[in-house]
Amino acid sequence: MEFTMREHIFMTKGCPIHYWEGGVEIAPWVVFLHGACVDHHSFDPILPVIAEKFRVLAWDARGHGSPQPMGEPFTVPLAVEDLVALLDLLSIRQAVIIGHSNGTYIAQELAFRHPERVKALVISDGTCITWTHSVFENLLITISPALLNLYPYETLKKASISYVSSKKEIQDYTYEAYSNLAKKDFIAIWKGVTLCLHAEPDYFITKPMLLMHGDDDTMGDIKKIAPLWAAREPNCQYEVIPNAKHFAILDNPEFFNKTLLGFLAKLQA
């Protein structure tokens, strides 16, 4: 039987947020948060598998995919407010939160601000937003929106997709998702992402956590700090996704699904 999800729209702070829900009606909620400048289709190979045992929720975040106009400019804290509003709308008291790339930053900020709403975190291909990053790394992040603005949009899009995956179909999806955005919105979203880091040396994520990244993810410092981050957290399972770049959930969905289902099963035990 073909897997389908029900699409809905809710308005918040000047933006129509599109979201999709499905799966087992009485099962625990699992929420999926996509990365910057793409959309919920990032999880197309994941959602049908998880929906066989759980209630699933995915969205197009403010300014991404369907939600137009953006309304207030995208920031990670604002995305957290949007997400809390959506959880409240659906009477979801607590859920497993799964993020990819920028979606992991929204997930982490939700856990930081509203830990009571998070049953567990799944982080795929994202850095730690509360890590004390180097001065050089912080400088690069800060100036990156201005640097990106110097490039023609076509050049920027084509250069970016080589980092996400080596597979043409995944590069094509990413390019099409980027092309749904005007350049000014692409830059605005990226600027919102760069502002999300806040060093919290004494902070730990107390929730069960699954931390993953592609074995060939060269985006930022994700791969470098992941094992150190995993060692710092008191309840973290760390996995490296083989044969995968930054879009590891699409590069190797079989490994991701198997690992995720095992993690979710342990939560239910």
Give the SSE layout:
Blueprint: E1 6-12, E2 15-23, E3 29-33, H1 47-50, E4 55-60, H2 76-89, E5 95-100, H3 102-113, E6 118-124, H4 135-148, H5 153-164, H6 168-179, H7 183-194, E7 209-214, H8 222-232, E8 236-241, H9 248-251, H10 253-268
Parallel strand pairs: 3-4, 3-5, 5-6, 6-7, 7-8
Antiparallel strand pairs: 1-2, 2-4
Helix pairs in contact: 2-3, 4-7, 5-6
Properties at a glance:
alpha/beta; 8-stranded mixed β-sheet; 10 helices; Rossmann fold; 269 residues
How would you characterize this protein structure?
The chain has one domain (6-268): 3-Layer(aba) Sandwich (Rossmann fold). Helix content is 41%, strand content 19%. It contains 10 helices and 8 strands. Helix 2 (76-89) crosses helix 3 (102-113), helix 4 runs antiparallel to helix 7 and helix 5 (153-164) runs antiparallel to helix 6 (168-179). The mean pLDDT is 94.
Summarize the structure.
With about 270 residues, the chain is of the alpha/beta class.
